Each structure stands twice: as C-alpha cells, then as structure tokens.
Automatic annotation (TrEMBL), chains A, B:
InterPro entries: ATPase_NBD, ROK, Tscrpt_reg_IclR_N, WH-like_DNA-bd_sf, WH_DNA-bd_sf. The keyword Oxidoreductase does not apply. GO terms for molecular function: DNA binding; kinase activity. SUPFAM superfamilies: Actin-like ATPase domain, Winged helix' DNA-binding domain. This is Putative NBD/HSP70 family sugar kinase. Pfam families: HTH_IclR, ROK. Residues 20-60 form the HTH iclR-type domain. Keywords: Kinase, Transferase. One of its GO terms (biological process) is regulation of DNA-templated transcription. Gene3D superfamilies: 3.30.420.40, Winged helix-like DNA-binding domain superfamily/Winged helix DNA-binding domain (1.10.10.10). Belongs to the ROK (NagC/XylR) family.
Length: 388, 388
C-alpha cells in the first residue's frame, strides 16, 4: 500500500494531538516512557512530539521530586495556565462570575447582589459588573477568555434561549448569548442553572466520576437535572427533570408545608425553611412533621426520576441542602416504599459557586472539543479562542 | 518528526479499517472517488485498501446500473452476507430465534410456543429447539454465528443475570449466558426484552434515527425502556423504566379496567383487551370509558418518564399497540394536562419479531465494536467470531 506525503503529514499531526490529549487527561505528570506506553508511539516519535509541544507552550517540564535518588526521569504536564474560561451564574438573588484555568480551578470571581424585583436591563448590567470584576481580579482581559458559559434560571432550549421562567417575569426570551457576544469575543453557551450545578458536582464535587446521576435542586422553587453516561442530558427541548409539573407530586406547593410551620412565624420566605429544619433538628414535633410532609412530596417526584433512570446517585443541592442532616434521612425514608433500590443520596459540596463552576466546566468541554477535533492541526496557545 | 516502521504499519491498518467502516456505514455502494472524499486518503491509498479488502472478502464490486451511458465508475459495497448473528426472544408465550445477516435482515427464524406454566428446564429446551430450527432454516451451524443476544422477560442486571420476574416464578436467577455458551461458541449477551424491542424500533422500525425515545410496552404487564443519545440506557442495576412500581400510577392494576368490561365477559385474559378496544372502536360507551381510565393510568407513568427525559418520541409497543387507533388518541388526551410538550407518539411497526430483531441489532453492535477496535488489525471474515 502506498503512503502519500499528505498521509504522513496527517499522521504526524494526529500523533501530536493524541500525545497532547494524553497529557491533558493524565492525573499526574508523565515520563517519556509513560507517554510511549499510553500513545503507542515509538520512543523517537514521542521525543519529537514532546519537544514540539514544549516549544509551542502547551506542556512544561516538571521539577524533579526533591530527595529522589539518582537522576530522575523527566516528567511533563499539560499547562493548565495557558488559557482561561468564564462561568457565570445569573440567579434570582445574585450574579456570580468566576474565571478558571484549564483545570477548572477558580482564579478569581466577581459577585453582584440582585433580587426578584431587579428588572431585566438591570440584571444584565449586573452581569457585566460581575464579569468585569472577575476579569479585573484575575488580571485578564475579555480577549484572554477561550470560552464562556452562563447559567440562567428557567428552561433553556437548544438554541440557548431562555424559554420559560417562573421567578422573573421579564426574563423569558432574553437573548443572553447575543448580549454577551457584544463584548466577549469567544464561543458562548447558555444553559439552565440546575444543569450546570449537576455538571459541576460530577466534575469537581460530590459526584466526581459518577456516570449517571439525578441532581435535585431543593429550595423554594424545586428543580432537577440529569447527568447520563457522564454527560449533561438536555432532552429534545431542554426541559428535562420537570417532574414537578405533575400535580400528583405536589412539588409546586411543597415548600409551603415548611413555611406554614409555627417555627417559621415572622421569618422572611427565604429564612423560613432553615428555621423549620433547625427546629426539627432540635426535636420540635410539628417541625419534624412538616419536614416529613415536605419529604413525602419531594420523594414522589424523585421516585419518578429514579424509577425511570435507575441512577447510581442522587445529589441534593440548592438552599435546603444546607439542612441535609435533617432532610436527607426523611427523604430516604419517604423513597423506600417506591423504589426497589433507593440510590445513594449525597448533599452537594460545592455550595454557592456550583452553577458558575458548572459553567466553567461546560466551557472547558467546548475548549477541549475544539482543541482535539481540528482534523489534526495543532494550534498555539494564543490561537484557540479564535476557533469557532 | 521521525516516523518509524511500526507507525507506518499502524497507519496502513488504520486506513484499511477506516475505509471498511465508511463502506459499512454507507447507505449505498461507493465509488473510489466517494471513498477518497469520505476517508480523506489519497486516491492511490484508497486503491490499495479496496484491493486488499476485496481480496480478503470484506467488500464486493457492485454490478453497474443497467442502462447507464458511457463506462460507469466501479462501486463497492460492504458484504453483509459474510457473517450472521442470532437474536432470541424468550417470552412468556413464545420463544423466537432469528438469524440475520450483518445488515440485520432476517435470513431465517424458528419459533416454539410456550406458556406461563412451562417450567424453567422446558423453556430452556424450547430455546434450543427454536435456535436449532432457525439455524437449520438458515443452512448454518452454531459455529457460523458471530454473536448472540437473548432477550428475556424480567429485570436483567449488568452481568446479564435475570434478577426479577413477575410472570414466571422459576425464571429469576436463570444463568442464560452460561447455558447458551455451552453450545454457542461466540460472544453472548442477555438483555431485557422491552429494551431490545426499543432498540429494534430505533434501528429498523418506527423510531429509525431518533436519538432519545421512551418505548412503552402496553400489554397485560406494562413496561418501558429508554434509548438515550442513540443507545440503550441500562441504568445502574438494569432497572430503568420501572415507573409502574409507583402505586400512584396504577400501572399494576390498570389492565383490569379493560378486563372487567362487559365487552370482555367470557374471554380469556389474553383476548379481553382486544375485545374491549374493538367495542370502543365500534362506539360502545362503557368500553370507551374503560379505555379512557386505562389511558389515564398509562399517562401517569408515561408523564413521569416524559417529564424526566423530554424525549423526542414515545413508541407504543406490546400487544395492546395493535389497537393503537383507539388507544393512542386516548393516551394523547390523558397526557396533555401533565406535559408542557406532549412528544410525538407512534405505534410500533415491527410486530412480534421486535424483541428478537433487537437482539440481532445488539449482537451486531458488538460485532462492529470488535471489528473496528482491534487496534488496527483487520481480520478475515472467517475470524471475527473467535474474538472475545
């Protein structure tokens, strides 16, 4: 069989990209010997590839471990500091922007408080202020960003349009991607906030490595999101995890069982649930009964998803998950009668940065896809953000 | 960068496998020019690859279209006749075995009637008789098979063990793969029957090309299966689509609303539903009300899955789907109040071969995976069944 010059050129580029991907996905720096084993390339080819990648700035040699006897083998790592992405959480009560490196580590963030009465144009201004603050804190310009993902409350369709919102009357239909694109010259994705929270937990949080999970957002407005086969599941119109729309679950009104409790009298709606969980923890019978009723309804919608999908894990996120020590046992008890196997349920560990972090994770997925699907053409680190 | 002899050898094998895959996936025979375009290889390389594949027996030249003016370009197709797989449906009332070619076309089949009182060892004997009949009819030996998948009623776990069965008291725990492996010297997979029916509809039936769908098995014992991102979804323990376990859906008892109808008096349980659907079609008010009540419950479980997953399509399969002209409008009406978007619902088109066909499809997936993941080593058509 003949091999043309073009074929050879393609082979070289493929070897370079494959080596870069192996280094990108490695959990620790790799020696040349390890690279040979993991790429299947010859020692000589790996030497050439590493020299090229180092010269272009994609990888760096790691200092030898101090105290190692003899001459240690050189080790190389992917340089996660050559690029940055931006994750944004546009919520009812806050806008949070985080700048992360290519490992998803937060370099800097900016936060602006808003509320349910903030008008659309004011909320959009708050988004810019949060972004600017995060960029200033990171010492970066908008042109340094390789990708941006913003999470919004409401249903977000395939085209990134917010199609339905319960909490913010003037937010549906907002053209977020177009708006952000005016000043951010890189690929921009819009996604539902619970979906991003689920992704963050799977990449960086309590669900690290789990392939199939249901993320439950428990708060005044409950929601859910799915990770299936390790990836965010969107559904046909972006409306996955909407079991709360079934009257029979009682999801629409279940927070009222907590807010109507004696322990919550006089508290703001935002504070009420926490006070009831506190009272239940302290032994207040009425509060415990309210938590059980709430858990009964939460379990109905959760069981619908668990019985449909048989997931490995359920992650409990959202404001009420801060009282997981009280809520989780009640939810477990309430699920038992419905399920053959109640899956493991764990409270979120990422806290209030969850959605913005998930945005950074999704932006990084997109960066990797662009980097490693260029039909064999390896770019310099200064170039990737221009790739569309 | 250096390119070693081993790298070159690997490149050649990769090119051969990629070309074979392009021909395998093509919907029509391809010319050399089309192969060049679709593989990205040079004309000379494609010429070499095609000669090698033809000589090994993997591809064949297609006779030129009669009536074509001038000298038509040679066209090549993947030879779907070089290998065969076996799909088996082990149901409550029948065992059906089909032998298909590598395109999933049924070459021959064998069928044995059983019933709910057939003991485990008798059912296993019936499986062998159906397999033997299919092989005899196909003019093949067990050693000609490249893969086998058997579908069983009940929950089938990741290891292929039947863990829970409602209809057949002595069937749970049956070691199907080990049993079949005694006489079938090729890879064997065991799967739940509804899951295989869903796969068949997605590959060969009414859901061709749809990426996300819910398959509803409507019959005396309702069930469901999921195709997500184009692949069968198993869940953590194989128990997906089990929404019927929620009391609130009424799935366990809903067939009784049909069987208790006046139109069904005196009929066998297997016949009752059909008589009621017939009466409803003819305008019998009581039968229509019974169908509506049945559809109300069917819709509750269906809504749980639809709201969880937001699928593109729901496929209605199983015995009752033969009365889809009556059932489907009732189900649509009953779903409306629960769903933001009622997905498209279509009745199954594959009929009673559905499960066995799905078995053949899954066996073919496995064959392709073995063929195209051999790290570049292309085998002869006589060899693949030996690969494990």
């Amino acid at each position: 069989m003949q091999v043309s010059g073009g074929d050879l050129q393609r082979l070289r580029q493929q070897n370079t990209l494959n080596s870069l991907r192996v280094l990108r996905e490695a959990r620790a720096p790799l020696t040349l010997t390890e690279l040979v084993a993991q790429t299947g390339l010859s020692r000589a080819s790996v030497g050439d590839v590493v020299a090229e990648l180092q010269q272009r700035g994609w990888i760096a040699e790691v200092d030898p471990t101090p105290g190692t006897l003899g001459r240690p083998a050189k080790r190389y790592r992917f340089r996660t500091d050559v690029g940055h992405v931006l994750g944004i959480d546009i919520g009812v009560h806050k806008v949070l922007a985080v700048v992360t490196d290519l490992a998803g580590r937060v370099i800097a963030s900016g936060r602006v408080a808003v509320d349910r009465h903030t008008a659309r144009h004011e909320r959009l201004e708050a988004v810019w202020r949060a972004i600017d603050a995060a960029l200033v804190a990171a010492g970066r310009a908008a042109s340094d960003l390789w990708g941006v993902t913003a999470g919004s409350t409401g249903v977000v369709n395939r085209e990134g349009l917010v199609t339905r919102v319960h909490d913010l009357p003037d937010w549906a239909g907002v053209e977020l991607a177009g708006h952000l694109g005016q000043r951010l010259p890189c690929p921009i994705t819009i996604e539902n906030d619970s979906k991003l929270a689920a992704l963050a937990e799977q990449r960086l949080g309590v669900a690290a490595g789990v392939q199939d999970l249901v993320y439950l957002h428990v708060g005044r407005r409950p929601g859910a999101a799915l990770i299936l086969n390790g990836r965010l599941h969107h559904g046909f119109s972006g409306a996955t995890g909407e079991v709360g729309l079934m009257e029979v679950t009682g999801w629409r009104t279940m927070a009222g069982h907590l807010e109507g409790c004696r322990a919550a009298v006089g508290a703001s709606p935002e504070e009420a649930a926490r006070l009831v969980f506190d009272a239940a923890r302290a032994g207040d019978r009425e509060a415990q009964a309210a938590v059980d009723t709430y858990a009964h309804h939460l379990a109905l919608g959760t069981a619908a998803m668990v019985l449909t999908l048989d997931p490995e894990l359920v992650v409990l996120g959202g404001g009420f998950s801060r009282s997981a020590d009280v809520l989780l046992p009640a939810l477990n008890r309430a699920l038992e009668p419905h399920c053959v196997r109640v899956p493991d349920i764990r409270p979120s560990t990422l806290g209030e940065e969850c959605v913005a972090l998930g945005g950074a994770c999704l932006a990084l997925d997109d960066v990797d896809e662009r980097l490693f699907s260029l039909e064999g053409a390896i770019l310099d680190p200064a170039a990737p953000q221009g790739v569309s």
